[in-house]
Design brief:
globular, mainly alpha, 2 strands
Length: about 300
């Protein structure tokens, strides 16, 4: 029982990180109808900015306190992501309003390669480290309930807590603020929102900026765990099954889908892997997403597809 709970908790922690990346997809798609294939590149670009600013700030300012240096680096990286989001909307999306979905998809693919190239030019192509003070060593908990206790990775717990806090903050932003209600109105009906005076261009900039902040937090956490390298851009591919499972238009779906995928990967690898030769964790999420595409393409919480003739 203890081993099962360890696996379950590990899956939930991984699922929260998947959800964090999937949120970027959902936020942009809900507000603009664009499936943003550049989300992975945004995570990479944000992580590179965070890692390099964390190195440069002490050199520029002479600060010896790593907490203050990381905080300044986070603010600077956030400003960079705001600028990137503004430029994407101003230079690309504004000129592609009402274009076909395939055109918008190709535009985000172009943004992907552009961000990867510019990131390498500005920040370099080495493997960088992000040290935000998260403890790396595991701990044993619940010794009195299970023999030997449960082995929990403190870094995963803190990362999941950060992801959960960001999700709560986004939920409050969307539900309780005037800008959040405008974003939801745009998501429901672009033309109706525009008819009552909601400026679509400004809303799209805000959404891309929010997605940039989400990418920064995701990049910071993944970079702390794995190091900042260009393979980090592929983390978006891990979030695609989450989006398919939860629904492309549902923020709660991104969270639930991420948790299901994370837990499913860990449990299937541990309990089914020995019977199929291992490696099931690599393809489990995509197999599950394929099943949903066949039988429920809108996902668990996505809007039901209705064709009228």
């Amino acid at each position: 029982m203890g081993f099962f709970l360890e696996t379950l908790i590990g899956g939930l922690m991984a699922g929260m990180l998947y959800s964090l990346v999937a949120l970027g997809f959902v936020l942009i798609y809900k507000a603009s109808g664009v499936f943003n294939f550049a989300q992975g590149a945004m995570v990479l670009f944000a992580a590179l900015a965070m890692a390099r600013f964390a190195e440069w700030v002490p050199q520029w300012t002479g600060l010896s306190n790593p907490i203050v240096a990381n905080l300044i680096a986070f603010v600077l990286a956030g400003a960079v992501m705001f600028i990137v989001a503004w430029l994407i909307e101003r230079l690309v999306l504004r000129h592609l309003v009402n274009q076909e979905g395939a055109t918008l998809l190709m535009a985000t693919l172009g943004i992907t390669y552009f961000l990867e190239g510019v990131g390498q030019t500005i920040f370099g192509s080495n493997i960088y480290k992000i040290d935000i003070g998260m403890p790396k060593e595991p701990v044993f908990v619940l010794d009195s309930m299970f023999p030997g206790g449960l082995l929990i990775n403190k870094e995963d717990v803190i990362a999941a807590a950060i992801a959960a806090a960001l999700v709560v903050a986004l939920s409050i932003f969307f539900q309780k603020t005037g800008t959040g209600r405008a974003l939801r109105a745009v998501a429901d009906d672009h033309q109706a929102a525009q008819s009552i005076g909601i400026p679509l261009n400004r809303i799209w900039v805000i959404v891309w900026c929010v997605a940039g902040v989400v990418a920064l937090v995701a990049g910071m956490i993944w970079g702390s765990k794995l190091g900042v390298q260009f393979s980090l851009a592929t983390v978006a591919l891990r979030a695609l099954p989450v989006v398919i499972l939860g629904g492309l238009t549902s923020v709660p779906g991104a969270i639930i889908g991420g948790l299901i995928i994370g837990v499913g990967e860990k449990l299937s690898e541990v309990y089914l892997g020995p019977y199929v030769g291992g490696g099931i964790e690599i393809w489990f999420a995509y197999a599950l997403a394929l099943v949903f595409l066949l039988f429920r393409p809108q996902g668990l919480f996505g809007e039901k597809i209705i064709d009228r003739v």
